[in-house]
Design the sequence.
């Protein structure tokens, strides 16, 4: 099957933070007097992410209400009485700053080649409504005809509804869409349950050989070779 549309996840597929997410949170927490180690904060973040529901105060995952609750949970764990909104705003400034991120080396060459072959490109990502602006700042937006952002559509991967929304927006049969991301449950299993083809990308040197895993987005070329 040669896909008509290639959908890509955003974070850790197209770009990544220059420092770990937990390290960036730790810096923001230190600024308000909460001395928490990066490892400890990473564990709390994982727990809080799993514990919070898909909606908080009417807002979907990764919306402002959701992040407000997420930050408040972390501050309670740190025994810090700082207003969560102050920390959320500080983190928002960090995560909307394009200098926080680096685009992976294979991304622009892969996107250029796919575009030259006439492949339609989309982004399907669990992210806040600020992703379109961030893609503009990172010079990635012009490649993509469709952006499906979890906060904007009200569903987050691995919910099949976000992938159904992608199919509807691209007017493409799900079986002719290939989704690529870095999370096995969110990107591989979620997309396949929705009827899409799917692959993971893992740029880790020496990663185990797995037919479901690409070592680079440039490996997508093989799908379009005659």
Sequence:
């Amino acid at each position: 099957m040669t896909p008509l549309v290639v959908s890509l996840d955003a974070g850790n597929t197209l770009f990544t933070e220059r420092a770990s997410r937990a390290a960036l949170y730790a810096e923001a927490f230190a600024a308000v007097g909460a001395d928490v180690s990066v490892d400890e904060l990473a564990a709390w973040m994982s727990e809080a992410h799993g514990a919070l529901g898909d909606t908080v105060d009417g807002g979907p995952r990764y919306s402002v209400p959701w992040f407000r609750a997420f930050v408040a949970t972390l501050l309670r764990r740190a025994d810090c009485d700082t207003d969560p909104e102050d920390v959320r705003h500080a983190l928002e400034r960090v995560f909307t700053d394009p200098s926080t991120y680096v685009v992976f080396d294979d991304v622009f060459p892969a996107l250029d080649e796919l575009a030259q072959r006439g492949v339609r490109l989309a982004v399907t990502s669990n992210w806040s409504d600020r992703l379109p602006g961030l893609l503009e700042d990172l010079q990635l937006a012009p490649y993509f005809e469709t952006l499906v952002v979890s906060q904007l559509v009200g569903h987050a991967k691995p919910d099949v509804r976000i992938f159904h929304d992608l199919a509807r927006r691209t007017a493409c049969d799900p079986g002719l869409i290939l989704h690529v991301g870095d999370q096995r449950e969110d990107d591989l299993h979620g997309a396949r349950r929705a009827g899409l083809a799917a692959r993971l990308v893992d740029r880790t040197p020496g990663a185990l050989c797995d037919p479901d895993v690409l070592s680079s987005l440039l490996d997508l070329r093989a799908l379009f070779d005659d």
Remarks:
- The two ends are 12 Å apart (CA to CA).
- The chain has a mean pLDDT of 95.
- The first strand starts at residue 5 and ends at 8.
- The first helix runs from residue 21 to 30.
